[in-house]
Amino acid sequence: MVALEEAIEKVMNEARVLPMEEISLTEAQGLVLAEDVFSDLDMPPFRKAAVDGFACRREDLDKPLKVIETIAAGEVPQKSIGVQECTRIMTGAMVPEGADCVVMIEHTIGEDEGTIRFIGDKTSDNIAQKGEDIRKGEKVLSAGTVLEAQHIAVLASVGRFTPKVYRRPLVGIIATGDELVEPWEQPKAGQIRNSNAWQTITQVKKTGAEYIYGGIVKDNPQALSEKINLFRQKVDVLLFSGGISMGEYDYVPQVMKDAGLRLIFKDIDIQPGRPTLFGILDHIAVFGLPGNPVSSFVQFELMVHPFIYTSMGKTFHAHIRHLPIGEDFYRTKANRRSLIPVRIENDWIFPVKYHGSAHINAYTFASGWIDIPKGKKELKKGEMIDVRLL
What we know:
Elements: H1 4-13, E1 20-22, E2 37-38, E3 48-49, E4 53-56, E5 65-71, E6 85-89, E7 101-104, E8 108-110, E9 115-118, E10 127-128, E11 139-141, H2 149-157, E12 164-166, E13 170-176, E14 180-181, E15 192-193, H3 196-207, E16 210-217, H4 221-231, E17 237-241, H5 252-259, E18 262-265, E19 277-281, E20 284-289, H6 293-311, E21 320-324, E22 329-330, E23 338-345, E24 348-351, E25 368-372, E26 378-379, E27 384-389
Parallel strand pairs: 5-6, 13-16, 13-17, 14-15, 17-20
Antiparallel strand pairs: 1-12, 2-11, 3-10, 4-6, 4-7, 5-9, 8-9, 18-19, 19-20, 21-27, 22-26, 23-24, 23-25, 25-27
Helix pairs in contact: 1-6, 3-6, 4-5
């Protein structure tokens, strides 16, 4: 049995960034850029109007101006601005030669047909200059950037529709147990619905990885071995739910060993989540998560989540708050290090009603969990403690 910190270290020592690939911008959100990106043009690529109005010479603002042309966004001016001339122009349109300002339309009045006059006290240039945002050849994004909407916009603006990124890992998910049926099935006597797999699928999707769900495998070594062989050429990470403890029908560790697993650890000194397995099969990281849903949920967040992030080139940061507990807390047994679900209310921590590692409903009321060391039975109201946020 290993300590939690040792288990996490062993997991992360096996984490590797996956190879890069080129991917469409429509699929790039949340992925990590694998290359520096440089602009292929000035932005803006031409002088453009920042407002709807009239492009003219500033020195002519006290005189009537003849409108010689109308320029919409996307059009190229056909005429240059001369003395006492102006062009009606739309926001984003190219400013014609000879103009050094654009006056807002609401600061003008029409006089004779085809003539306007400026009636404001003063005006800004209202012109976005060529290259004022980005110059051609300038680095616009660095390798390692996690791509979100604003980065996608930059990539699109410099013509990088298929940037190089580190690819998403493919995660295989297998639930084990004779007692399991799927959520759409009616359990018979002795059966329960399979909640763990659907919880894990959601957690995997939240990391940005892709997944294959292998369904429920009964407690049968041959069936389990066949499913492993089906997945081992496809996935980067393989997650089992259940079947890894000390029961007579917990076949996962032996079947994995027979398949060639390099076992790194099998038990962690933590509650919930003691029966957690980790090893390497060929190129695949294999996690055996406990059958109880709270244990599975917590161990995924502690180990699988940061492993997947690292494989995508991301850095995982647990969100921690240091807050006072809002009431006395006492536990009858202190022989295990325990993670206790809590809620945060007005910056105070309150333990939620919790019956143990099968009680996943408790986590629907929780903001996070607190880590109670082995040997510590109680916390006094006002005592400061770290909360790992969900």
